[in-house]
Design brief:
The complex is a heterodimer. By secondary structure, chain A is α+β, with helices and mostly antiparallel strands. Chain A is built from 16 helices and 42 strands. In chain A, the strands form 10 sheets. A 6-stranded mixed β-sheet of chain A has the order 6-7-8-3-9-10, with helices on both faces. In chain A, strands 15, 16, 17, 18, 19 and 20 form a 6-stranded mixed β-sheet that branches. In chain A, strands 26-27-28-23-29-30 form a 6-stranded mixed β-sheet, sandwiched between helices. Chain A is globular, with a radius of gyration of 27 Å. Chain B has a domain at 61-254: MetI-like fold. Chain B has a two-stranded antiparallel ribbon. The chains are: A alpha+beta, B mainly alpha.
């Protein structure tokens, strides 16, 4: 069973949507189409399915030419970004529907429905209707409908794009397993490099309607055929720099020399471009052969366990991903790095300059805003009885002026409710909200002087970019000279000076989102900038750019910023303090580092980090824990604990070993590019370990050891602080 | 795949061709036929060439009817579109009231044309009509059978009553499709009510409003039944719109040739206007409305 595209191309109204493509997909493989929005992923899929007829070329299915055959006769299954189920049918009938159309017998249908439901973990909810399910379950139902048909070709068009970050992560782990069992040809479109890596199989990178490379996923990732492929298949973005080869040596821009590696011996002399990934950049001389480079530091972003540095190297933008949390405001740090991509294996070092101190605007321009939430709670019901009726449970908190906060949680956890209360779009059912000492609980949105950026870009289509940015100022009656000056400044900041004159209609999503951001920043008197999942509709590469821009703006202007998201990376990199919410309740407020190292609740441990924290039921006595009889040393001593006691260990703080720790069985090793995720079984329980990109995992590594300082103890879900 | 190559498939479109021929092509051709011939009865016809067309173009009667027609269409558009938008803006967006409004609004659309005509004919009568009698009792001189202005006001109010809901419903659908975030952003930007309308609601409604204008224009341009039932084109010729005039000419006076020429020109005008609308709308589409 193979699907072959022979010179397939599609032209619509004189525009080339898909360049002539040759592709052979084998039975039982997972094939990922990776590329940004509008790169031709969906067009290519439609050609494969027979939903569109190619302008040129043939589609061969099992050796037969099926070009132009109706999609109904092709036996393909498709899953879309939107969860498409029949709303009036139960889950059972939904899954059964394709087989009923095929006219299968009742017992046969029943058997297969139950089998597939079990595989998709839907067996408990067969009698429910799709709208009574969560988003993840709805998409599982759609997936089950696609799988149950036993179609030879299953096409999935960004099936996880509309799901929460954490759900996405879980399904990503499950999907390859399910597919292994099914044995069809799977084609999976996505914009996210990380997803492609997790899914494994083969990947075809797409750029502007062209397949730039097709091959096994790790190989395409490690040896991209050209710079375009490297750019498409990298998150954070690939870094590039100019290099010249003369004879047996490579020369880099600043006089750094390196003997050319063997692999490049045949390469003719000349000027080339070298590419290296973010995680191959270091801030210290980690290896003697590493080269030094000097770069300017634009922004640093700290997640709980890693540091992203955004550098400016003579006009080239570089991103570095460095292990650990580094305070880069210290005077000069030096940086070293190694490049491996593009089949070079040169290495380098760098040096950067101290970040300019945060510039705060002069006092008269600023309105101070410390935001106090006093006894705040909200219920969407008019007469709430129990605590469950509250979408937002009682909350007392002070948001400090000038800080960046993130509200993190899955959908329905109350984070948007809280944001809307702050912005005044919603009146809380109880409690007060104060801006400094002024009670604004019942003040209208316009009086609060806040700015908000929404999930979907809101721009005034019929106005020019300039007028869009000027809108809030003009509404407040500022004079035109001032408006022009401010608009000019803001346009420069968001990098849109060159398109001020054009209409906002027809701009790309990220450009529109920049305009909404600019509209928020144009007023100098804003008390706070609120963001409601602003990067949802943005491609991964643009996310990086917009996020750095936000960060930079925050440093420059020091506005209080509140950012709502379900994506932990966004929350951790953006915020000084992250507020983790669960079921209408704030479970922890802390710096990314605190959330990572000392999650107060098991939910925080699970929600932050990918994969999340491992939990092991244990008995704790003093500074030793007993897990299934085996002793685990703890960094601290504990008194007697009541309730359900568990150890929480992050995959980052566990390592496989030959002779130390608890016995484990390795189930699978997932290469996700910059590190490996090792899925193991520990006393019959799933346990994840993260290992470095270069670490080898031997079959004889049958034990797992933990770093005692990073083992947390939980009683009934809440962390217990031990005594040192 | 083996493909059978012959042209038998053409037979499958035959039923449609026959149907279209009987329903459209043959009647139209009959009209074309009448328009280029003259008759003195006895089923004898003489070739007249383009004479009728020439005569009709020099006829004041047709130009007057066309003038009245354009005034009528312009007036009802000028009233119904803003009024419909205004009604849509003030309709409740959700809940039981919203459904109630929608049903109430669609009622006039369900009433057959000549019933509408009859309703207003009786409603406006000075002797027994509620409206006419009340106005007369208030001392207002209102009699649509004698007074030109009263006749015009009656047919315009009738059309507004009948069709404003169509515009309102379409505009309402357009408004419903605007995400809440736009209104929230506008509140944050401190936009006035007028600016919200001008920069958010109107641009988002533009597409459906174009359709509403097109529908209302075409419909009003071809209107016949209601004014015919109410005023019969009178007093005098004061409310004789194009199609009323056409019917008078063709069936009342049995001037087949001129009437045929008239109706062909009428048809061409409508075709031309539709084309203009269509082009404007597809261009708007391309701009991403």
């Amino acid at each position: 069973m193979t699907l072959e595209l022979r010179g397939v191309s599609r032209i619509v109204e004189g525009q080339l949507h898909v360049h002539p493509t040759d592709l052979v997909l084998e039975k039982g493989t997972m094939n990922v189409l990776l590329g940004p929005t509008l790169s031709g992923k969906t067009s290519l899929m439609r050609l494969m399915a027979g939903l569109d007829v190619p302008s040129v070329g043939q589609v061969i299915w099992q050796g037969k030419d099926v070009t132009g055959m109706r999609v109904q006769d092709r036996g393909v299954a498709m899953v879309y970004q939107q969860f498409i189920n029949y709303p009036s049918m139960t889950v059972y009938d939904n899954i059964a529907s394709p087989m009923r159309l095929l006219g299968l017998s009742k017992p046969e249908i029943d058997r297969r429905v139950r089998e597939t439901a079990e595989l998709m973990k839907l067996d408990g909810m067969l009698e429910r209707r799709p709208l009574e399910l969560s988003g993840g379950q709805q998409q599982r139902c759609a997936l089950a409908r696609a799988l149950v048909k036993d179609a030879g070709l299953v096409l999935l068009d960004e099936p996880l794009a509309n799901l929460d970050y954490k759900l996405r992560e879980e399904l990503r782990v499950e999907i390859p397993k399910i597919f292994e069992a099914a044995g069809s040809i799977f084609v999976y479109a996505t914009t996210e490099p990380e997803e492609a890596l997790l899914l494994g199989g083969n990947v075809a990178t797409l750029w502007e309607g062209r397949v730039t490379q097709f091959g096994p996923t790790p190989r395409v990732y490690r040896c991209p055929a050209d710079a375009t492929t490297a750019r498409v298949f990298s998150d954070p973005p690939m870094n590039f720099l100019a290099v010249a080869k003369t004879g047996a040596s490579l020369a880099f821009g600043e006089g750094q020399q390196l003997p050319a590696p063997e692999a490049l011996a045949e390469l003719p002399d000349g000027r080339y471009m070298a590419g290296f990934r973010a995680n191959h950049l270091e801030i210290r001389q980690h290896r003697p052969e590493a080269l030094r480079f000097t770069a300017g530091l634009a922004v640093t972003e700290l997640t709980g366990s890693e540091t992203f540095v955004h550098l400016d190297h003579h006009g080239d933008r570089w991103v570095g991903l460095i292990h650990g949390v580094h305070d880069l405001e210290m005077a000069r740090a030096s940086m070293s790095g190694s490049t491996r991509a593009m089949s070079t294996s040169s290495a380098r070092t760098g040096r950067w300059w101290r970040r300019p101190p945060t510039r705060r605007p002069p006092e008269e321009d600023r309105t101070m805003a410390r935001i106090t939430l006093d006894n705040l709670a909200h219920s969407y019901q008019s007469n709430p009885q129990t605590e469950d009726d509250y979408a937002l449970k009682e909350l007392n908190h002070v948001w400090e002026d000038g800080a960046a906060y993130a509200l993190l949680g899955s959908s329905g956890c109350g984070k948007s409710t809280l944001l809307n209360i702050i912005s005044g779009l919603l009146q809380p059912s109880q409690g007060r909200i104060l801006f400094d000492d002024r009670d604004v609980t019942h003040a209208a949105t316009a009086e609060r002087n806040i700015a908000q950026v929404f999930q979907f870009p809101v721009v005034y289509d019929t106005m020019t970019v300039h007028d869009n940015l000027a809108f809030p100022l003009r509404n407040r009656g500022r004079d035109e000279a001032y408006v022009a000056e401010r608009v000019g400044e803001i346009a420069r900041m968001i990098g849109m000076e060159h398109m001020l004159k054009r209409k906002a209609r027809g701009l790309t999503a990220d450009a529109k989102q920049k305009i909404s951001l600019g509209r928020g920043m144009v007023r100098k008197d804003v008390n706070a900038l609120l963001f409601d999942e602003p990067l949802t509709v943005i491609d991964p590469h643009m996310k990086w750019e917009l996020r750095t821009q936000l960060k930079k703006l925050h440093h420059e202007f020091g506005h209080t910023m509140i950012y709502v998201t379900h994506d932990q990376t966004e929350a951790l990199t953006f915020a000084d303090k992250v507020v983790v919410m669960y079921d209408g309740r704030v479970v922890q407020i802390g710096t990314p580092e605190e959330l990572f190292e000392r999650p107060e609740h098991t939910f925080v441990g699970y929600f932050i980090g990918s994969p999340g924290m491992n939990l092991l039921p244990a008995e704790v006595e003093g500074n030793v824990a007993h897990v299934h009889g085996a002793a685990v040393p703890l960094g601290r001593g504990y008194g007697p604990l009541s309730g359900k006691v568990e150890l929480g260990i992050r995959p980052e703080f566990a390592r496989l070993s030959r002779d130390e720790g608890l016995p484990v069985q390795i189930r699978r090793v997932e290469d996700v590019g910059r590190h490996k995720i090792i899925r193991t079984e520990l006393f019959g329980q799933e346990f994840n370990v993260i290992a470095g990109e270069d670490e080898t995992v031997g079959a004889d590594m049958a034990r797992v050891a933990f770093d005692p300082a990073h083992v947390n103890v939980y009683a009934d879900g809440w962390r217990v602080a031990g005594a040192a | 795949m083996n493909k059978t190559l012959n042209n038998k498939a053409w037979f499958l479109v035959l039923p449609v061709l026959v149907l279209v021929a009987f329903s459209a092509v043959i009647p139209l051709m009959t009209v074309v036929n009448y328009s280029v011939q003259d008759t003195f009865g006895n089923n004898q016809f003489f070739w007249a060439g383009l004479e009728w067309f020439e005569e009709m173009l020099h006829e004041d009667r047709m130009w007057n009817a066309l003038r009245r027609q354009l005034i009528f269409s312009a007036v009802i558009l000028a009233i119904e579109v803003p009024l419909g938008v205004f009604v849509a803006l003030n309709m409740p967006k959700s809940g039981a009231w919203s459904s109630f409004c929608l049903v109430t609004m669609s009622l006039p659309l369900l009433i057959p044309w000549n019933v509408v005509g009859t309703i207003w004919q009786i409603f406006g009568r000075v002797d027994i009509g509620l409206l006419g009698h009340t106005l007369a009792a208030m001392g207002i001189d209102y009699n649509y059978t004698q007074d030109t202005i009263a006749a015009w006001v009656t047919i315009i109010v009738m059309d507004v009553w009948h069709w404003t809901s169509l515009v309102a419903l379409l505009a309402f659908a357009g408004l419903k499709s605007i995400p809440d975030a736009y209104y929230q952003a506008a509140r944050i930007d401190q936009a006035s009510r007028w600016k919200v309308f001008r920069y958010i609601e109107l641009p988002k409604m533009a597409g459906v409003l174009m359709i509403a204008i097109l529908l209302r224009f075409m419909d009003s341009f071809m209107i016949y039944t209601e004014p015919f039932v109410v005023t019969g084109g009178g007093p005098g010729n004061a409310t004789t719109l194009l199609s009323i005039d056409l019917v008078k000419m063709a069936l009342g006076q049995f001037d087949l040739g001129p009437a045929a020429a008239f109706s062909l020109m009428y048809f061409l005008v409508i075709l031309a206007i539709s084309w203009v609308f269509y082009t404007v709308m597809t261009n708007l589409d391309k701009k991403g409305m």
